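Inputs:
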Amino acid sequence: MTPVLRITDLVLETGPASAPLRPVSHVGFEVAPGEAFGLVGESGSGKSLTLRAVTGLLPEGVRQAGGTLELERDGALRPYRFAEARGRGIGMVFQEPMTALNPTMRVGDLVTAGPRARHGWSRRTARSRALDLLAEVGMPDPEGQARMWPHQLSGGLRQRVMIAMALATEPSVLLCDEPTTALDVAVQDQILRLLHRIRVERGLSIVFVTHDLGVVRRLCDRVAVMYAGQVVETGRVDEVFTRPTHPYSAGLLRSMPTPDTPRDRPLAAIPGGQPGAADRPEGCRFAPRCAHAVPACARLAHTLAEVPGSPSRSACLRVAGLGGPPLDRRALIA
Amino acid sequence: MTGRGRFRFVGRRLLQAIPLTLVLLLLVFAMLKVVPGDPALQVAGPRASAATLEAIRIHLGLDQPVWLQFVHYLGRVATGDLGTTATGSTKVSTLIAAGTPVTLVLLAVSTVFTVVIAGATALLAARRPDGLADRLINVVAAFGVGVPTFWLGIVLLAGVALPTGAFPIGGWGDTPATVLRAAVLPALALSVSVAPVLMASLRSGIVEARRSEYHAAAQAAGVRGWTLTRRFVLRNAAVPPVSLLAALTTLLLSGAVVVESTFGLPGLGLSLTQAAQNRDFNVIQGLTLVFSLAVVAVNLVGDVLVALLDPRVEV
């Protein structure tokens, strides 16, 4: 089946053109129709920037220096123009519902501002569409809340408004940038359920950017793990979570608490910290922190390669078929 | 804020203005009490006998307790009686009624200039922050703030009015057309010092709105073009400048005093300058009152406008 969205070799740069830094280098992934795709990594891994790049809404000073962005249209993937894709095709849910809703517009007007400006909807059409959307995202009183200002709503309701706003353009892919990070735990759960329901009902594809592995395991079909601006492993969620093919993903999983984790012992942690865009090592960027590193890791050119005996793809020299001394994958899970 | 909430907000602001106005009246009243010199002596002249002075004091009510004098003062102000000029020929209220339209037109034209200049330059500067236009405008704005208004007035008279003949060399008009023509140069002189302040506020508001998450979220939702600029940038960027403009009215008023003298416009500012020269206390007192009330009123309007523009303002 043709993917709805494909990102190939995305390179993002900042700083002077003569000596640029690359917060994101050669990132690629594709999303199938109706699929939920997770992009996980620590802060600074480039996951949010990648998502921003898909809509062409990069922060000031960051530019796309390479890569192809394609959306499905009439059965084939085609490069798109941002202005086009934002109005139909791609929707985006932002992390902070406090700052991502215009404080000077009533909720009802805000939700349909996009399609109204684009299709010249009448006030009446826009209003009835807004009420439909607010009901769809589970607002308890669409009529009343359409007349309210964003600051009068709770964080959870604001995030629902944000989702309604993103759905107003009838997108085929919904990009979610840490959609629950700013919310408290009970509300997080409601929003995740809502996103899941919308995805099923609308047949939407969803891309989740998150540092929360629990969210990925719960909602996503496939996942890409990002580290220091690169994808280090990608595959089906059930595979990656049970049989990781990169020492970094394995470390992330070990550091995630489960109900069985003994409470009297500290959580496992990966020694060291993720290098910033300015001081990334040559070769495998994770090698300096990796317990399984060999000298050849420092010369490795980044590629995602097939892993023998696994449907995942990995950038690890010792796990994927990249010619390094093989590593018994059970060592990663232990 | 719902419609009724806003209504309540306006009502509360009006109520809050009442004690403020009373304090103002008290200050203006106290102004005369603290000026050196005996009013009775001024009326009667230095040769008057003690008995005459006493009679005048009783006539003026100066023998009564100060609080009672204040109550009487309030009563007179309420009926529009602000006393007569030092020569006794004209009522102060008549003088104020004559000067008010001139000053109002001057301030109105100047406000329009200020808003237009500040709006246009802010939009231009905000197009590319720290770009060439932005930096150029910044430099010019710094000069604008620094130029003394009286000097700029003289330069406009000598450099524009005299050589072109398009504007009168001072004085006012008697038809709408001549009035407007007479107001152009003084209003411009007045705007030049105020517009840069407004421009800076508007510019940073625009830049901030464009960098905001809600701007990005709107773009992601397909909002573009004029809707994006109007509802997601200008609307939000307008809030600080509106309250600033209200605060700048004091600056415009004091500027009007200077400009009216430079251009010889028969407004309240010129009356104030002349009254100060003649030590005409009734006129000074009356004008101070009018100016203070104007500032209170403008700030009230500014607060209400801000509340209309920004729904987050406390109800």
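The longest strand of chain A covers residues 62-73. Flag for discussion at group meeting.
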